[in-house]
Amino acid sequence: MVNGDHTIRATLVVLSIALAVTLSGCGEEASGERLVDTKGPTQILRNDAASRVDSSLLLSADRKTDLSEGCGLADKDPKGLLRYWHSGINLNLDTSSADSAETEGEKLVASYVKDGWEATTQSGSGSSTSILENKESEQEIRVTVTTGGGGGLGAAITVDVYGPCVETGGPDSEEVKNLEG
Q1: Residue ranges covered by each domain of the chain
Q2: Is the pLDDT assigned to residue 167 strictly greater than 90?
Q3: Residue from 69, 70, 115, 106 nearest 88 by CA
């Protein structure tokens, strides 16, 4: 990597953390922020995570997700007014083995742990998911590594970032439609 890449990455991290520090989490209560205020910081954090993957291993990027989702509090929010911004990307890897995908995923998670994030990892057959949380950020990062079949075919790293829970006009509101449009 070139030195300028590290500077850009560090700047993105600082900006995303600074913007996210003012936001409240997607827990029992909504923050006083608006959904529009959470979209940008969530996208920046997704882009930062994707930029930490070794570009020489990237085959393609797809499944770019940018939308609001309900906070899952049906008993407290039957109209679905409480929503968070979800920004994700699927990074398809050109790897020679499943180990290469696992190693790259571990490096990505370790880079956030080094920056003060806490990681919880769950492994399953052919994939693992790490949930990254930071007390200075109300956002959550999920990194899923799929090792693919023989020879690493189908290997991918999926990055999903979830913003804080905020009160909206609901899934059919102009606010949500404009942001998702």
Answers
A1: 3-180
A2: yes
A3: 69
